[in-house]
Amino acid sequence: MSTFSFKQFSIKQDKTAMKVGTDGVLLGAWSPIYHNPFSVLDVGAGTGIIALMLAQRTHAEQIDALEIDEDAYEQAVENFESSPWGDRLFCFHAGLDEFIDEPEDEYDLIVSNPPFYAEDYKTESEQRDLARFQDAMPFEELVEAADLLLSENGIFALIIPFKEEEKFIALAKEAELFPLKITRVKGTPKSEIKRSLLAFSRNEVSGIEIDELTIEIDRHVYTPEYIELTKDFYLKM
């Protein structure tokens, strides 16, 4: 499927190995925006889906995305330009290390669905493997960038494998970024927790909001919570 249609925008994905997936949609719909971010940065944009979801959800004037893979970068630009929010969206063709060399701006919301590598996971496509491989963007580098680029009252949100949650929270704490909200995600009521949605800020809070989200009750029968989270985006929700 080379085009994925949402309620207010479409994603072309014929050029890139990174297709629209549940992780990106979860992060785009879940990321906290109660602080009315003026500027947003999406690190590792892929098709641009998370930036587009945040353009739909917020009034942010400046939504920047960063993508190192040339095909994905071109695809994100194309998706931004054909969306209703083209004037607020901009994609940089650069790696995180280049981008933080000369930081121009601070961001009120930084989001990332970082590439990670599941054990024993190799596909026939080297490009896709690179995109999934954590070496492409180590967690340390991501935390360092968030620390450098996050505005004083900003929020840094990401989705990672649940098994990495503890390690990531410890890394963030070293940079004085503290968890605000944690949502642990599982596919079905009986399956194990697979993902963690994490939101951090520079201010330590006493009551971290922690909850769990189950996606499906049965194959293609979605839970009320998942429908509530994604109904502004998915056509059939």
UniProtKB/TrEMBL annotation:
All copies of domain Methyltransferase small, residue ranges: 39-122
Question: Which keywords does this chain's UniProt record carry?
Answer: Cytoplasm, Methyltransferase, S-adenosyl-L-methionine, Transferase, tRNA processing
Predominantly, its location class is cytoplasm
Q: Which reaction does it catalyse?
A: adenosine(37) in tRNA1(Val) + S-adenosyl-L-methionine = N(6)-methyladenosine(37) in tRNA1(Val) + S-adenosyl-L-homocysteine + H(+)
UniProt-listed PROSITE patterns: N6_MTASE
Keyword field contains Transmembrane: no
Any Pfam family hit: MTS
- GO BP terms in the entry: methylation
Give the subcellular location. Cytoplasm
Question: Under the GO molecular function aspect, what terms does this record hold?
Answer: methyltransferase activity
EC? 2.1.1.223
- Say which family it is in: Belongs to the methyltransferase superfamily. tRNA (adenine-N(6)-)-methyltransferase family.
Query: What's the stated role of this polypeptide?
Result: Specifically methylates the adenine in position 37 of tRNA(1)(Val) (anticodon cmo5UAC).
The name under which this protein is listed is tRNA1(Val) (adenine(37)-N6)-methyltransferase
**Source species of the chain:** Flavobacterium ginsenosidimutans
